[in-house]
Fold this protein.
Amino acid sequence: MIRVLPNNIANLIAAGEVVSRPASAAKELMENSIDAGADNIQLVILDSGRTLIQVIDNGCGMGPEDAVLCFERHATSKIADAEDLEKIMTYGFRGEALASIAAVGEVVLKTRRAQDELGIQVTASASKITDTTPASTPVGCYISVRNLFYNIPARRKFLKTDAAEMRHIIAEFSRVALVNPDISFSLTHNGKILYNLKSTSSKKQRIIDLCGKELNRELVDIGTDTSVVKIHGYIGKPEDARKRLGNQFLFINGRFFRSPYFNKAICKPYEGMIPDGYTPSYFIFLESDPSKIDVNIHPAKTEVKFEDEAVVFDILSACVRESLGKNSFVPSLDFDTGTQIDFPISGFRDSGYTAPPKVNYDPLFNPFEHESRHFDHPSKLDAVPDEYLSENNFYGKIFEDTTNGASQVIILKNRYLLTPSTEGLMVVDLKRARERIFFERYLPLLAERQQITQQSLFPLEIALSSTDHSCLLENLHIATAMGYDIRDLGDNTMIVYGVPDGMSADDAEVKQQIDDIIARIQQGGFEEDSYADAAMLLANSAARINKREITVTEANSILDQLFACHNCETAPSGKKCVTIISLNDLTKGL
């Protein structure tokens, strides 16, 4: 039997698309305030939006009739006929926001126009208006949403932790505030002011106020004006690219949108300048004829369809490339970004035996005489092999001099170690070898929960974006378990008092280590009780090859320690540490 759904059920269904979490409601309310012409918007949050979401603005306000009508579905002042859909420049145009919010929360609206002596208060819940009374209120709009999802327990139960939900609210707040620098914004959570942004004529100043002073040094201008699209904004320098996402913003006609397609257009000119897996910061504002774009293809309005998408892609990529060229950024040689030498593999994997290399080490130890013991993929490890947990396995000075004879090792480009073998030439990837060594040192220590923190002589302050700060604060126990001593200073700043023993304490390196941790958490975090995940991340950070050339003594020490590992063949990532160039291959090449 076919039936027409009652309005309250239809509103609940619509609310599921429009209001997926507290951040969605906050976004819709702030956008309504902007459409009302407000130049001062206050967002007040309690318990990450579970208890209260409140928006106060000084916009044009509404009269008594409109204040009641705005809670009806599809009630809007932005659209009058079909032609208006081709020239949308406002945020809210479908008239679903307040109806959807009132379907899943307890809403109180107070509003007054400048020409009215008295305003009105409207109370609504479960898609019904329960009360309307005259009210003395300032010009503008005051709206509060309490007990979000009170009538949908399943939806409320599946909300994330308070820190995670607040991170989403901050992200939405940032997107709205970034593109409207001429509006003053404030964000208060549980009585604490997180942001108090003054109006400014400079988008870059608003970016700095929101995302941190460090971006003032990192960003360079981009801009172009074509008949298809006008582009202006800022991109990050290649050396400041990071593994983690967070400072990537695209706007079209003042509306934030996501686009993996245009993200490729922005990142493509950086090829050869940044390592694989890294993403530059960018704040790019596009302007286009509204009739050439469709902003109504996604319930949350975070996706946009362009009529000339391929053309915009090319213009955007060319604009970024031009800015990089003007600022004299040129590709640098990096063995991790496609310029790595491909050595022929011979004998190492195909044959059952390879003679040991002729280096100075204990002749009674031969890593190739027994079957290699491999880890499972580290992300799937839940236990640590017994041999890693012996009492003799202690953490001492890494890469100390353990050689006492003549060297037979050649250091190539501070990236490869070459040493003779009975079958030809053994080539060792230095970074992967260091990863393996550090991994096998950190893994048992983390598994046994041993203290590996080395206190820094001078604590380091690290300024983070609000999103990264809340992410790290929520997962501070993970960083502590890994050997970091990090404490919250407030104002989106952390202080690092200690790092894991063996890690670089250089300021830039410590910042990169913290970036690595945040990036991993944002990508899915660490499996519970999987010490290999943490050990692999620490090993990767500790094994970064610095600019200083290693000495022959250090090279020999690395070889000795690599061959003493339980699995010297591969890095924790599964990539090969060692390969053999046979005598036949060498002869053919000469």
Observations:
- The chain has a mean pLDDT of 80.
- The first helix runs from residue 7 to 18.
